[in-house]
Queue: 2 jobs
Job 1
Amino acid sequence: MPDRPACYGWIFPDLAQLEDNKPLKSPVFTVLLESSGMFVQRRSLQVDEAVWNACQQCQDYRSCYDLSLARFLLAQAIEHR
C-alpha cells in the first residue's frame, strides 16, 4: 500500500466513541451532544471548511472518502446489532 497521510480513512469521527458533553473530532468534523439530564438538549455538527477544502484537493481523496464511508457504515451496523 502506498504511503498515505495519517488522516487517511478517517474523514468521519468514530461515533462509537461519542459521549455527552464531549466534542468528538475527526480531521474535518466535530460532533457534540449537549445534555444536562436524561435527554440530549442539543446536537451540533461543525465542519472545518479549510480542512475539508484541503482534503478534497488531496490526491488520495476519493479512496480515502470511500474507506471513511465504509468504516462509518460498518461501525454503525455493528453498533445497532
Job 2
Amino acid sequence: MLSALKINEVIQEIIQPANGKQDLLKRGELLKVLSEEYKNVKIAEMVNMKPQAVEQGLMLANASEQVKDLVRSGAISPTAAIGALRSERSGGPPAYDVLSAMVEEAKRIGKTHATAKHSLHPIGNGPTRKVISEAVKVIGDLKEQIDELLSPTQQQKRSEYESKLVSLDLSPTQLRALRALHVQTPRAAKRSG
C-alpha cells in the first residue's frame, strides 16, 4: 500500500515534471505506481488526464523490456510502440517483432528514429487516410456504374427485351440461357464500339 505522501509525489511528478518535460515511458511508469492503488478512471481524474491517455501510458509501462529499450534509446517513437502493443493485444504480431522491423526499415532509408510510417504492416486502430480515400473513390465509381445500369433507358430496354423473350414461348432453361447472353451482350458491344 502506497503512503499518501508517495501518492502525492507521484501525482506532482506527472502533473509538473521536474525537468519541465516528461517522456511517455516515464509518465507510464509513474502511472503504473498509481495503478497499484487506483483504477484508470480515478487516476485520470487525479492527474488531469483522459482515461485513454492513462491506459496508453500503462500499456507502455507494462511492455516487455525489449520494447521499452527501443523507446528509451529513441530508436522508436512511444506512439508507434503503443500502436504496436495495441495491435498485439488485438491478436496481431508480437510488438517487439513489429517495432524491430520498423527500426530496420527506418535505418534502411537513412533515418535514426522509427515512427508508425516505417511499419511494414498496419499498426494502430484502423486504416490510413490514403486507404479510406481510395475506398471512397472505388465506392463512387461503383455507384456511377450502378446508376447507369438502373437508368430509365436501361430499365426500359430490359423490359422490352423481357416482353420479347416471353413472346417466344421458350422453356425456362432456354429463357435463362438467353437472359445470361443478354447480360453479356451490352459489355461486348461496349468493347467493340
